[in-house]
UniProtKB/TrEMBL annotation:
Family statement: Belongs to the short-chain dehydrogenases/reductases (SDR) family.
Domain of life: Bacteria
Annotated source species: Sodalis glossinidius (strain morsitans)
Listed SUPFAM superfamilies: NAD(P)-binding Rossmann-fold domains
Coiled-coil features, chain-numbered ranges: none
Annotated Pfam families: adh_short_C2
Keywords annotated in UniProt: Oxidoreductase
GO molecular function: oxidoreductase activity
Cross-referenced InterPro entries: NAD(P)-bd_dom_sf (IPR036291), SDR_fam (IPR002347)
Protein name in the entry: 3-oxoacyl-[acyl-carrier-protein] reductase FabG
Length: 238
């Protein structure tokens, strides 16, 4: 239902609905770009850190599906919202821990539950993890723990939703040139080079690298694939 790169909107020519937290103008600009390219898209505001609003969001989504797309259900859900906080284990306070857990784990857990009546049988869910559940980098203990929780949740969702033919997989990006963690990987040339030197394919990942993998996992080409953790990191820290 939500995707984070233009490629992600292209795999399904029918429609895509994205969400935004606070950058409404950027979200609407992306909708226009997709529609200009021949796609069909819409955006809804969503704060994944406020689970009390998920029921209202589900109602808004149901209304949008009906009014704009003449549909009663959607077929793919991507739980992509999340934040990163860089703090050593010994310096992470409860407020930071709770914020990470609320947005990165509690949010996807209860949002998915709220949207299940609108998710079509035979559809798919794609959760998001991180390469940091495989390799370790000081300062991301709490963040990585929330992503590890998502990996366990994915397997349980597979078990409990398989009767409806719903596939559930989890995508684990490596370091990406993006706004994550204040854009450090993208903007700090020294950090970028260190990561590139420790990546088999010789560079840091780009948003479209993740978008292409996301599209593949949601496509019919992966119809027999479920309960899988797929890392897209270019071979980072092997």
């Amino acid at each position: 239902m939500f995707a984070d790169s233009e490629q992600s909107f292209r795999f399904n020519a029918f429609y895509t609905i994205g969400t935004y937290h606070s950058h409404k103008e950027e979200a609407q600009a992306l909708v226009k770009e997709i529609e200009w390219s021949g796609g069909n898209a819409a955006m809804l505001q969503l704060d994944t850190g406020d689970s009390r609003r998920f029921g209202d969001f589900a109602s808004d989504l149901q209304q949008l599906l009906s009014d704009k797309f003449n549909q009663t259900q959607f077929h793919h859900l991507v739980n992509n919202a999340g934040i990163g906080i860089h703090a050593p284990f010994t310096a992470t306070d409860e407020e930071q821990f709770d914020q990470l857990m609320r947005i990165n784990f509690k949010g996807p857990f209860f949002l998915t539950r709220a949207l299940l009546p609108l998710l079509a049988d035979g559809g798919s869910i794609l959760n998001m993890s991180s390469g940091l559940t495989r390799f370790t980098t000081p300062g991301f203990a709490a963040y990585a723990a929330t992503k590890g929780a998502m990996e366990v949740l994915t397997r349980y969702q597979v078990k409990e939703l398989g009767g409806r033919g719903i596939r559930v997989n989890i995508l684990a990006p490596g370091a990406i040139e993006s706004d994550f963690a204040g854009g450090t990987v993208r903007d700090n040339k020294q950090v970028n080079q260190v990561i590139a030197d420790n990546t088999v394919l010789g560079r840091v990942g780009l948003p479209d690298d993740i978008g292409a993998t996301l599209v593949a996992l949601l496509s019919d080409n992966c119809h027999w694939m479920t309960a899988q953790r797929v890392e897209a990191s270019g071979g980072m820290y092997l």
